[in-house]
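Box 3.1 A note on notation
Throughout this textbook, protein chains are presented in two layers. The first layer is the amino acid sequence; the second is a token string describing backbone geometry. Keep the layers aligned when reading.
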Amino acid sequence: MNDSPNVNSNVAVNVRYAGFWLRLFAGLIDSITLAVFGFFVSAATHQISGYSLAERFGPGWWMAVCLNLLIHWLYYTVAESSKDQGTPGKVLLGLKVTDEAGRRISFGKANARYWSKILSGVLLYIGYFMIGFTKRKQGLHDVIAHTLVLRKDANDTPRRPLLTGLVIGLIAVGGISEIMILASTLPHPHRITDQEMRAALGPKVFEQTDFPQGKIMDMTHNCLLKENRKGITSEKAMPMCVCLVQKWVERFTLLEFVTAGNAYWDPQRVPEAVAKKSAIDAECIKSTMQ
């Protein structure tokens, strides 16, 4: 005899459907969690590829978007078909995703639910608002995938304190991460594309050095930004910044360069490193002004 409750039966059972506002709050928790992961993925993509994320529809931008979409898909489908039966946001709020018989869903059904959310969203989000007025609190994606979102009872797996702490920690830094991501993609009147910057730097600057490509691009971006703040356009500042970056990479190791800019890391080596950097700065300023 099957002891699991069948929510389709006419027999009165203690089934508690998760309402619109509770699911919305769980979704916000998941969105912030994914935003934090997205920030670190985007930063790693930039460092590994050397492409700037500020250039919309550029190579680095597309790499970050594709990786974040992959994480987003796995986050929902794997979590909702796991033993926890829900994403971290749902688990924190004591919710679980089930089939219409109250059972754990398969990975295939989790995918059906995930991709059906496209329809819930494109139809002016009506598919999501359906949760608020349907009998079993189902969104359009739930109806299509034949799933339910229920409140857990005493017999279900208890909430996990470690997961709770992890998600709360991610939420705490989520706002800052989102601001940083948005700030990095804001248009700038003097911005030069990555392709133009790479062409100006030349291929040799990226070879035979312990500087990561992302660091070299960052150094160039920061140099241009510094000049932009003085009212100098990137086009005019580019020759000097290229000269600086090329000589920094040629004459410094990564550790020496960081030491020159961060005196508290190694005070004993600072005078020599700073003097070398100052000499390079003066050399490039003089050569580009001639």
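The chain has twelve helices and two strands. The longest strand covers residues 95-99.
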